[in-house]
Design a protein that fits this description.
elongated; single chain; 33 strands; 670 residues; four-stranded antiparallel sheet; alpha+beta
């Protein structure tokens, strides 16, 4: 941590020496070494870090303190140098020594702020609270730092209480299939939980100076529930430059990731960027990944765009944008953008203050339920560094207050890169804890119940020609029947016709699939599943456009015992409208059917009225009346006869059969 007031302290000391003012020591050699140390970071480069030579300055300060151990100014500057090298315990040691020698070494009690923030950063919460409280009492304390100190005092109270009430946390290493001596981090996973894609920092002699770079690796879950040996992504994805922070679509066919420019401004062969780090997009066709392109639309800028997270429906992207403040300090917030119909992304919108704070936000994850957001932040009440939080979206589309995941999931160190499985039970993260295979390793743990999202399973299937069995890249739509909201709009794989999407459980959905030259497919289903069920499968046979058997409109609904169309029917009927407009030579008959319960004459009348309602709607939508006819069949053409229903043993089966009999169909006449 680089402290503004500490810099002022150094400048003040520099002016003091220039003006020949005295130090606390009389030892000339100690003063000479101290002044050399103060200038050392700007004069030479540390060969290990390639940055300012703070280590060299520390060596000189140690020599100065050998000459006079009570030289408190040397302790203060050495503490700062250790801060710059991210060695907080050493920084704390020297701040405490400076205070022991001179309880008020800086104006406004600033040293207590420096010490308190360092103690907080290593989890010494009780000591930190005392130091920071001392700072807030000092005359002339900097107002901005007083505000920060009060926030940290509250954080200390939260952390102390959290440690008294730890949550369950037993991380398990993902094993040698994923983890190596190198660092593995930023995981992303397909909604079926079977394909894990992550970033690995590898040695690469082609890279000047640092000799290492980031690439993507993929591991698949074996039938024995272990992760197979990860393999690198193809060479048109992985390059000699860094590729990082990936997010993969629910079906594993779309990938958005981060790539940055080098010193020359190049993003690599065939890649163009807008400055700094940009988001790039690639798509898998069959087993081949196409060359990545700069993400189309308004997301990328000259700033640093990173750490994307794609919603399960593929329509919303969350990401982190990092900017430099006027004071030269980096700040990052979480933004969101929506996908337009033309395949480009809208101008991003910054998430509200329930998520973003004046401090750093990073590592965002939108769960497949579309309503639960996990992210890391320095600004919400936490335990130090970056903590992981969860926020939930209400029915109005508003994000709720961030909730800390507690101790020991969070600690005084930085926590980020959380990945939560579709069912919400398992979470993945990166850690360099003891017992791993090398540097950062990927781990998983059972997520405590109170932090879990809505359980989400995957819905998969195959779209194919009902006659030839040939796979088709059909376009499909899934609508929540209760809300009428289209939750998924996608298409099957262009090569093999497969699709995989995620859906929250305990909801009823309407499925519509279309493809040129075929009648569109319609079905509805309820995602109420058994506790141990992981998926819901449905194959989609598509019938070529020919005159013949009727096609059921499974997602057309009416009010009870009425011919009034319910609003959730419009999505399906609009698809029928589009189908008719795309095939202007076709004429169809709308057929209405009821079950066999109730009065036969009344059923016939109702079915006829319902068929006519559908016909009238299509006419209102611009379809010529001469192309449409309607007829009510009542209970005369059941899918399940009364005899067949009587043989069913479960009432739920019988009711489902009656429901199948109650239907609206269309039949191509020519």
């Amino acid at each position: 941590m680089k402290n503004g007031l500490l810099v002022l302290f150094l400048l003040a000391m520099a002016s003091c020496s220039t003006a020949q003012m005295t130090y606390s020591t009389k030892n000339k050699k100690a003063i000479e070494l101290y002044e050399q140390a103060r200038n050392e970071p700007g004069k030479s480069v540390d060969p290990r870090t390639h940055g300012p030579n703070f280590a060299g300055a520390i060596s000189l300060l140690d020599k100065a303190l050998e000459k006079d151990p009570n030289f408190w100014e040397a302790h203060m500057v050495e503490a700062e140098m250790y801060e710059e090298l991210n060695q907080p315990y050493k920084a704390i040691e020297h701040y405490r020594k400076a205070i022991a020698i001179n309880p008020n070494p800086t104006s406004g009690g600033a040293v207590y702020f420096y010490l308190g923030t360092m103690e907080y950063s290593v989890g010494e919460y009780e000591n930190a609270a005392k130091s920071l409280t001392e700072f807030t009492k000092a005359k002339g304390a900097h107002p901005e730092n007083v505000a920060r100190a009060n926030q940290l005092i509250n954080d200390c109270a939260f952390a102390i209480e959290a440690m008294k009430n730890p949550t369950q946390f037993k991380p398990v290493n993902l094993g040698p299939g994923v983890n190596t001596k190198d660092a593995e981090y930023f995981p992303t996973i397909t909604v079926d939980g079977k394909t894990l894609l992550f970033t690995r920092r590898i040695e690469d002699k082609r890279v000047p100076v640092y000799g290492e770079q980031e690439d993507f690796y993929v591991s698949n879950l074996s039938t024995f529930k272990t992760w197979e040996t990860a393999i690198p992504m193809p060479k048109n994805i992985n390059t000699v430059r860094n590729e990082g922070a990936p997010t993969i679509s629910a079906d594993g066919r779309n990938l958005i990731f981060v790539a940055c420019d080098d010193e020359s401004g190049s993003y690599g062969e065939g890649r163009k960027g807008k400055g700094s780090c940009d988001l790039f997009y690639t798509k898998r066709l069959g087993n081949q990944w196409v060359d990545p392109v700069n993400l189309p639309g308004a997301i990328n800028t000259g700033n640093w765009e990173t750490q994307p997270s794609l919603s399960a429906d593929g329509k919303t992207l969350y990401f982190v944008r990092r900017v430099m403040t006027k004071s030269g300090i980096p700040d990052s917030d979480i933004y969101t953008s929506t996908l337009k119909d033309d395949g480009t992304w809208n101008t991003p919108v910054r998430l509200p203050s329930t998520i973003n704070t004046p401090y750093m936000e990073e590592s965002v994850l939108i769960h497949p339920d579309g309503k639960t957001l996990y992210f890391s932040s320095q600004g919400h009440r936490g335990m130090g560094g970056l903590d992981i939080f969860v926020s939930r979206m209400n029915d109005k589309g508003e994000w709720g207050q961030a909730e800390n995941l507690g101790y020991p999931i969070n600690s005084s160190a930085d926590e980020n890169s959380l990945l939560v499985s579709a069912d919400g039970e398992i979470a993945f993260f990166a850690s360099d804890r003891e017992g791993g295979f090398g540097k950062l390793d990927l781990y998983y743990f059972v997520l405590p119940e109170k932090f879990r999202p809505v359980k989400t399973l995957y819905f998969d299937g195959l779209v194919f020609d009902a006659v030839t069995k040939k796979p088709l890249p059909g376009k499909f739509s899934l609508v929540n029947i209760k809300t009428g909201v289209e939750v998924i709009k996608s298409e099957a794989d262009q090569v093999n016709g497969t699709f995989t999407v995620s859906l929250p459980i305990n909801e009823e959905y309407a499925l519509s699939v279309s493809y040129p030259g075929y009648t569109f497919y319609s079905q509805n289903f309820n995602m109420t599943v058994a506790d141990n069920q992981e998926s819901f499968h449905m194959d989609v046979p598509m019938n070529p456009i020919v005159a013949g058997p009727p096609t059921a409109l499974r997602n057309v609904f009416f009010d009870l015992d009425k011919a009034t169309l319910r609003p959730e029917s419009y999505v399906e009927l609009n698809k029928l409208r589009d189908f008719l407009k795309a095939n202007p030579a076709i004429k169809i008959e709308i057929g209405g059917h009821t079950d066999t319960r109730g009065d036969e004459a009344a059923n016939l009348k109702l079915s006829d009225a319902r068929a006519k309602s559908v016909k009238d709607y299509l006419i209102q939508q611009g379809i010529e009346a001469t192309r449409l006819s309607s007829k009510g069949y009542g209970e005369t053409m059941p899918i399940f006869t009364d005899e067949a229903i009587a043989k069913m043993t479960k009432e739920s089966e019988k009711e489902k059969a009656h429901q199948e009999n109650r239907r609206t169909e269309y039949k191509i006449l020519k």
